Structures
1.
Amino acid sequence: MRGRLASTVATIVAVALLWAAPAPATGAKTPPPPASLASDTIDAHLGYMPQRTCSPSAKPGTTALLKLLIATWGGSSSGISRSCGVGTTSEHKEGRALDWRRDVKYASHRKSVDRALAWLTANNGEVAYRLGVMYIIWNQRIWSLYYPELGWRKMPSRGSYTANHKNHVHISLSWDGAMKQTSWWTGVPVTEPLNSKCGVGGAHACLPTIARNGKLAWPYQHTDVPASFLPAPWTVPGIGGSPQVGRTLTAVAGTWVPDGADVGYQWIAGSANIPGATAATFEVTAAQVGKPIRVRVTATTASGPAVRVSAVTNDVVKARFTTVPKPTFTGPVATGQPVTVEPGEWAAVPDTLTVTWKRNGKAIKGASGVGLTSYTPTSADTGKKLTATVTGRRAGFYTASAASASVKVARGTFATAPAPTIAGDAVVGGTLAADPGTWQPTATLRYQWYAAGRAVKGATKPAFTVPASLSGVDVLVQVTATRSGYTSTKVSSEPVTIAAG
């Protein structure tokens, strides 16, 4: 199990390069990075730490970040402080949340915000770590440093344009970020998070800040940030990882655990212990969807056990299939010929795959079901566009679907088209009978008798009485087969020579 995030990532090999953010204004001089930034560590972070007190005055790091955003990408301030009696829990009430005024209805605003948020969240949130960002809300979506695997998530509507953060970007900071005590401002990566003001109440003294000149092109040692989050140890247990089916959560016992203690764990979903979940890690399953997760840590020494419980995670969300391939058809797509759809390789593997066959975009009645990977087009499909939609379902996953490319259904061809045979007496006055054989599929048959290569007028029945005029002439019969949705097919018999009567 990892310890402090700072000590963990300190072992990662760094690659020296300059941050590729917007360049400073022409003529601006960028001072060299302080020696402390030659370290390849990233700031330790506690994750989400909500408002607990009320001190709404704007904190220096919050003010500095808001000014940086406005100076670089425009916009204005929608405020930092919020009165203690307004609304519910909010980091605004501790002066460590900012609202940057930008509006989604303007393309230029969206573009500037996209650039700023890409800067903050790139490399699994390196700049967010270095600024002490906890989470960002914009246009009814949220990004959390402590749930990086989940990326940007859609939020439920809060009922108004402003409440859905469509006219401002909200950024909440840790206490280190709010107090301007992170590496972005001091050059010293955080190793022991504050979670309070610095220099008061027993917290370490505030570190001096670096003169930053307000520009983003500040060169520092680039650090490869882990793709998953692990909180720094604190006075209560912490949880690393995202609350999503299939992901592994890791308990960080905390600084309160005595040296040499025997540490035990119990994971909790909602209010109930999860049976058998007593290791330091826990893989989230479908059974926890919609429930928050906590971990209870018991540290036992000779003097007895001590127990502390972590804060809850967000409610567990369903996972998503990481690969949803586009299904493909095999074989010709024609009336009367079975078509097979190949669903491709899904990841994760679905519990079930349902196939819905569609004609011109509409589901074909009776042609939908689990595992129904084959369909035989009928005459109703001829000339229409055939598609197959494959839907994957798995417990604890969002249902996903993918549709094949559309293919126009060609006319079918008869599987068997036998040449007719002629029975009877091939003599003047005799009757000849055409035997068409067995056609597959069945067809409507038309007959035409020929003499010396020319059609005999009126001779369109299976039976034909030979007139005297055809003595010594070669006679044959031609059969024309038709069926809706199929290509019309003509076949002829071998000729017979008519003898004199």
2.
Amino acid sequence: MKKIFALSAALLLCAALAAGCAVGSNGGLAPSESPVQIPNPVTEVESAEAFADLGVSIDAPQNAGDVSYSIIGGTVAQVDFTLDGHAYTYRAAKGEEDISGVYETFAEEALSVNWEFEAKGVSADIKTAEGGGRLATWYEAGATYSLWTADGVSDDAMSSLVLKLVVQQGLADAEREPFKPIDFLADGKCEADLDGDGVPETVTLVTTTDEYDWMRNTITVTAADGTVHELHVGEEEWLTEIQIVTALQVIDLDPNDGLSEIVLSGDYCSADYATLICRFDGTQIVLSRYEEPRDGGNYSGLRGAFQGVDEDGVVTVADHIDVLGTWWGARRYTLTGDGAFTFIPVQGELWQRTIDNLDDPENWTGEYGPALETKAELPVTLDGSGETTLPVGTKLIITASDETSTARFALQDGRTGSIAFTRNADEWVARINGVEESEYFVTVPYAG
């Protein structure tokens, strides 16, 4: 979802004859017209990306099942899918010819649906076959589109699905602007189109306090029909126990998936931060997960305090990092890219240290300051020089780490390098060449 679309016109039922339209028995075309036969062969393709050379971009809607893709005669893109128990065929091709391939006898009355968006208007005609099937056709940006189902779905269901496809494929938005996150921390409530159907939902942060003044927070989404959906965390009840909420936003991780995400982030207790990122898919609120590099586990939400999201859907979080001392760092996470709602660190990036006078080496002092001072020769790898040792009395500052095997550092003279270490999962300390870190440094300032 790139912006909140506003429906400006209701569904209009009109008699085709009264409107001066000639509706024949040849599938809705006037007797003087002849339907365009869909050419063969039908070539199956793996994904919607194969349609790029055809000049059209279509795909199945969110939550669709049994999705398959094909190209007809080298010109027509086709997506078959099921949704809510009904089977659909969605087609698109450049030009204005009838590509539906449906030659049923249709009722004389047709349903005309019209939507007014910020950029332009879009209209579609929906016809009903004698057997109860529904056919929707529309034309936009030099291409023709059709949606067919042999099932007798309702006017609302058919028109809503057409609208979802129009919005999903970007036909209604000629010039997309980057989505601007909606910050509703102050109000605790906002409206946003979370599931990409063109109709906004109401997002609310619900906070309760028990007899011990312990707070519990959760997210609710109220649909346009008044149905209230609540975020359920199962046995992970602690996820709702954020005591200080530091971020509450609606963001957009992927401008092409039609969905927006809700962010709830904060401090549970004593600077223990977590970020919950969830989606509303039209039927339920789904909580994201992330892969923790420290132990390879898969957990709900994201560890750390939410800092923001960029236009590429990359999320930045910040947290206290305990590697060769305790320091405040930031790390960027992205979705796995395989369709799962799971975050992984951006490839090749580490936790990057922030604050602590990194750019002022003369102030790397103090018993609990950011600098470490060696009291034994320290094995390191210097950038551009290879493996070596740093002499006793060297001051360095840890600048980044993956928390599991390597730490980046900077020296006062500007040189940089890395320290290789190991750490058992059940231990706090790191070992360098099998020796505890405390043997190498005058002080290793850990917090807590």
